[in-house]
Amino acid sequence: MPKQIAAFGEVMMRMQVPGYETLAQADTLKYSFSGSGVNVVSALSRYGHAAALITRLPDTPLGAAAATYLRKLGIATDRIASGGKYLGMYFLENGFGVRASRVTYTNRLESSFNTAPAEAYNFEQIASGLAAVHFCGITLAMNDSVRAQMKALAKQVKQQGGKVIFDCNYRPSLWGEGGYTKARPHMEEMLHLADIVLMNEKDALFTLGMPTEHHEREQQLKELIPAVAKKYNITAIAGTHREINGDNTHSLRGFLYKDGLWAFSERLTFSVYDRIGAGDAFASGIIHGELEGFAPERTVRFAAAAGMLAHTVPGDTPMATEAEIVRTMEQTSAGDVER
Known about the structure:
Blueprint: E1 4-8, E2 12-16, E3 30-34, H1 36-46, E4 50-54, E5 56-57, H2 61-72, E6 75-76, E7 81-82, E8 88-93, E9 102-106, H3 123-127, E10 132-136, H4 137-140, H5 144-159, E11 163-167, H6 172-175, H7 179-193, E12 196-198, H8 201-207, H9 217-232, E13 236-244, E14 250-258, E15 261-264, E16 268-270, H10 278-292, H11 296-310, H12 322-333
Parallel strand pairs: 1-4, 1-10, 2-8, 4-6, 5-7, 10-11, 11-12, 12-13
Antiparallel strand pairs: 2-3, 8-9, 13-14, 14-15, 14-16
Helix pairs in contact: 1-10, 5-7, 8-9, 10-11, 11-12
């Protein structure tokens, strides 16, 4: 029987500039709907789980369009509240060469999700029957009301026997000046509730303020991640190290720390079509492996392959099936990557 898995987070309207033009150059935009939670549970639906989104959409044609889009992705919408006036939007300009991709947010703080009152959700009812719920640090950055809702749902999920999955995903632009200091107590509260965490050594070093005398990334990782797992009693911590190469390809290596042991994926090098959402694809792979009881080595290899494949399609949302990811894993082991 498929496991019931949900994510709590905002649905955003993505407005993408065609090709590699800038907003100043372009006169057309392509829209779709996305969000970290949308990306994660959509991928989990493709892996055979029963996926749902916990959010709030406006009772407008845009809200209806977003709900229809979610259902096309295999996401159940019965846990979505209705109310508010707006959807948050962001504009994406694709980078090329030395010019980085750029995301510009608009109308986000007034969105239906971010203005939801405390009574918008019945968390006791919503959490019923859920095997796991995914939460994201981007959501945690929004405002005090959303933070309170996020923590209340996480506590209800734990109380009913489900797993809490937390992706630290610190975004400096969302927390503002003094962001690490503002974010730290909220991040720590979520970590105390979490069973599975997505983070790397930078989150431990800067967001949590944990010290290290090492300067090399992998040494920092191997010192700080076990310390985080011990301090917050976390079952599994996973993340990636990324390198951007001179020929515009990227290299990605995943890690998973579980039960005091490390597992690493191969270092995968690939061309990039669209980078947005690839971290969510990796997260979905880790969640799938953990819920299905994969060996840690298989889980992290599956997640890294899922992350790589997400770079090869347009849009935020991962599109690969479990069979496609497994095939890519097998080809990677043989030294041949399907692109």
